[in-house]
Design brief:
Length: 237
Amino acid sequence: MPGPRRRSILISRLADRPLGRPRDVLLDELRGIILDGQVPPGSAIPVDAVATAFGVSRIPVREALMTLIGEGLVDHRPNGGYRVALMTAHEFAEIYLVREALETAGLRAAVELACADDDEQARSAHGALDEAIGAYDGKRYHRESRRFHLALIRPCRMRRLLHMLDLAWNQTEPLQPMSHLGSAEREVLHADHAGMLAAFCARDAEALTAVFAAHHHRLQTAIGALPQDTGLFEIEG
């Protein structure tokens, strides 16, 4: 006799939400839960249960999920329903190559346009990373690492590049890759951050992109060494 059905992880995160939310709020909340790593890649997204949790019909839920499919955060399988997108290790590495190209271009432009206020934003973000390292908090480090990188890139003022980078970065967020690294690995990567900050504040584009290239290679190597058979990645057939 089968046991009781397990409650969807995503639905448990939606508990106590006010009912009858507008479509854009529904979309933002679903996206936020996925990006925060609260629902592991591969987790089912039951449309009826989501609609009930938000107090809406299935139509706005499906519309939101279609948007998230376009952003690479949700998959739809014929006769299998919706799920949080699950990538193979090879696909994951491809996204990091895209991010590297976009970040490199953004950093070069940012150095030329940055001002003292941008330096202060970067120093503040780096300080938050210091605190995450000291607290041995992997999830916090993951979150603050993105904030730091964007603090260096945002001064480029290139709206389309920043949008493309945001979309690419979001696709790797459900896995929370930085939170799976050990403390020693995070400390090595954080030393690169210090070098990036120094080069940024000195307006040295060549030094900044050189440190970033080494940092990104180190990051890709560390993530590439993560286990591929523990649910982090989809097994390639």
